[in-house]
TrEMBL record:
Molecular function terms, GO-annotated: ATP binding
Protein family (similarity comment): Belongs to the ABC transporter superfamily.
Alphabetically ordered keywords of this record: Amino-acid transport, ATP-binding, Cell membrane, Membrane, Nucleotide-binding, Transport
Domain ABC transporter as annotated: residue spans: 2-238
Species this protein is from: Roseateles rivi
The name this protein goes by in its record: ABC transporter ATP-binding protein
CDD domains (UniProt xref): ABC_TM1139_LivF_branched (cd03224)
Amino acid sequence: MLSVDRLCVGYGGAGVLHGVSLRVPKGQVVSLLGGRGAGKTTALRAIAGMVSPSAGRISFGGEDVTGVPAFRLSRKGLAYASEGRRACPGLTVHDNLLLGAFARLSGTRPREELDQDMARVLVHFPRLRQRQNELAGTLSGGEQQMLAMARALMLSPAIVLLDEPSMGLAPVLVDEVFHIIAQLRREGVTMLLVEQFAAAALKVSDHAYVLENGRIVLEGPAEQLQNDPAVHAAYLGGAAATADPAP
């Protein structure tokens, strides 16, 4: 589904990513873990077409999409739920969700079953269903994070990139967000998840990569990494979350 090979990205002459390679098979959840400043968000932004790599190759659905801009990638079915939520505060929750389906409404993605997809998304996010006619600016931070995730799903995407979905949330909302990710995983939604709460991310993932100083230093099946004492001591000791997603 998604393949990244030897990706290099820099800002203002300073390198951030140094030869990053990863794979996201169809129907799986893959986590990209690491501390603050490791380069996780930069990797997602490069994959999503928001920054241009200086070297390397990105393939999506078997097609070379290196350097393809974000709006074209969304038309191909790549959805990005960015760090910081970025809801349109003057629009209702319902209209924010429709913005996520813009490529479908404009005819560049299949429009069929749009109403069914809206209903399905609101089942996953009952808080949004209750507030769908209210302005997005009145939502709490946790509700806005859920709106960002739900808006990405409205694209009917081939893959969803989730950037720090638990950032700034209270523990009870972290639990809720990871339970939703676990539900989507069971439904076969393909996701690349960037997350600082490594222990919680591994519980909802099939495979994981650890990024350190812009380089992949470790990878493997999520369950293997989660149960490896050495890995836990090195990477998970300070990153455990309260979330306990459904298996």
